[in-house]
C-alpha cells in the first residue's frame, strides 16, 4: 500500500468523524433541551462515532509508525506525535462519555453527559486537526 493513499484515507475519514459527530451532538442537544426520552438515535449515533473514531485511530497509528520510521526526524515525530496525543485524549474522552451515558440513571442525565462530553471531544478534535495540516 502506498503511504499517500493512507494519508488521503486518514484525511478523508475525518469528514465521516465530523458528520457522525455532528449528528450525535445535535441529537444530544435537542434531547437535552426538549427533555425527550433517550432513544435509538442517541445510542446508535454514539456507537457509530466510537466505531469510526476507532478506525481513524488504527489508520493514524499505522501512519504514525510507518511515516515516523521512514522520515525518522525528531521534527517529524514532534509534529505527528503532538497530533496523535491530542487525538488519543479525544478518543479516551469519547469512550469515557459513552460509558457514563450508558450508566446514567435518567434520560435527562444521559443527554446532559453526552452533550458535555461531545462538546469536549469536538474541541479536542478541532485542535488536533489544527495541529497537523489544519482544516
Ligand atoms: C478523530 C481522530 C483523528 C482525526 C479526525 C485525524 C485527522 C487527521 C488529519 C485531517 C490529518 C492531516 C492529513 C493531511 O495531511 O491531509 C492527520 C494527519 C495525521 N494523523 Fe490523524 N487524525 C485522528 C487521529 C489520529 C491518531 C489517533 C493518530 C495516531 C495514533 C493519528 C496520526 C496522524 C499522523 C501521523 C498524521 C500525519 C500525516 C503526515 O505525515 O502529514 N491521527 N490526521
List the helices and strands and how they pair.
Layout: H1 3-33, H2 40-71, H3 74-103, H4 107-130
Helix pairs in contact: 1-2, 1-4, 2-3, 3-4
Report on the architecture of this protein.
This protein is an all-alpha fold and 135 residues long. The chain has one domain. The protein has helices at residues 3-33, 40-71, 74-103, 107-130. Helix 1 (3-33) packs antiparallel against helix 4, helix 2 runs antiparallel to helix 3 and helix 3 (74-103) packs antiparallel against helix 4 (107-130). The model has no long low-confidence stretch (mean pLDDT 96). The site of protoporphyrin IX containing FE (HEM) has 23 residues, from helix 1, helix 2, helix 3 and helix 4.
| Number of helical elements | 4
Provide the helix percentage: over 70%
The main β sheet shows up as:
none
Q: Looking at the structure, what is the overall shape? A: elongated
Radius of gyration equals 16 Å
SSE succession: HHHH
**Beta-strand residue percentage:** under 5%
- Counting structural domains, the number is 1
The overall strand count is 0
Separation of termini?
25 Å
Please state the average pLDDT score.
96
Ligands in the model, by name, code or SMILES, are: protoporphyrin IX containing FE
Class derived from helix and strand content: mainly alpha
Q: List the uncertain runs.
A: none
Short key terms for the protein model shown above:
87% helix; mainly alpha; single chain
Could you give a short description of this structure?
This protein has 135 residues and is mainly alpha-helical. It is built from four helices and no strands.
